[in-house]
Amino acid sequence: MPGVSRDNDTAVGDLIPSQSTVYANDEELIRDGDDVEAHVPGGVHAGPPLPTVPAGRNPNVYAENKLVIIEGDPATCSDETTGSDNVYIYDQAARVAQVLGVPSITLDPDTAEEIVLGQAVEIANGVDPTTTESVEYGDGGITGGGGAAPARFNNTSPVNGVSGPQNANIINQQQPREYPTNANGQYINWLPHVDSGVKPQVVQGLTGISIAVGYQLEITSGYRSPEYNARVGGARNSQHVQGNAVDVVQRGLSIAQRQQFIQAAIDNGFTAIGIYNTFTHVDIRGARVAWGSNGSRTSLPNYPWALEVLRANGYPY
Length: 317
What we know:
- The protein is α/β, with parallel strands linked by helices.
- The protein folds into 2 domains: 1-90, no CATH class; 126-312, Muramoyl-pentapeptide Carboxypeptidase, domain 2.
- 23% of the residues lie in helices and 9% in strands.
- It has a 6-stranded mixed sheet with strand order 3-4-5-7-6-8. Strands 1-2 form a two-stranded antiparallel sheet.
């Protein structure tokens, strides 16, 4: 792939080396060797399309935060070139950050690429990847990992670098709620950093799960305000923000017990299931959706025991 012209580059000879991670969203770029003065279309395009981005944001070209010139900009590629202020060269982690709606995120290249490819698969199957949790880590409430998939960021937020639990109750600054949460009951244990203000339907479903499986459920993530959701790397349109979702600790359970949990969740009204090594995400969005640790169905094969239960219940995986 040819190089791409950056803001303030003076000539074709100053163009940066080509990168396989350049994503152009069907915009034409000036390439190394193109007629600079004429702005000959370059056709630099790589990677699947991004999902819809928030109003006011443009999903154009990113490559390591370097401003580039898109075809049609009123620029002459001289020292005075301004280019376009919403066009950047970026790596895969920056693309994940854009989908999440956060300024930046810390991911190793392999994990970032896996997430990006998984998002494309979800889009192709009619699922909005801004509603599934690709960098979920239990809000810092649990540690460890192991199994077929890697540990979730070593209990450290990939967005702000904070290790350990981040106190949602302080960050969210919510008013006391009128409905019961069973926070101190025998069925549900909301960990100290968790905001328990999910919808009553979620509490009712959790109670039903607890009765079915015979043990108290430990909740590591509940309601998230938009600010808190961004801090912990939640999906941009996370069901946690709507009060529809929780993450339930699953450490120390056998495969049979984890299968029993999934079945109980489905039986008690939870329709979306996210499978991670040490916890399970459940929400009541209505649509039957499931994903593995990268936020996509592409990582579900890491959990064949979960696929067995999901398929038995009509999930199309």
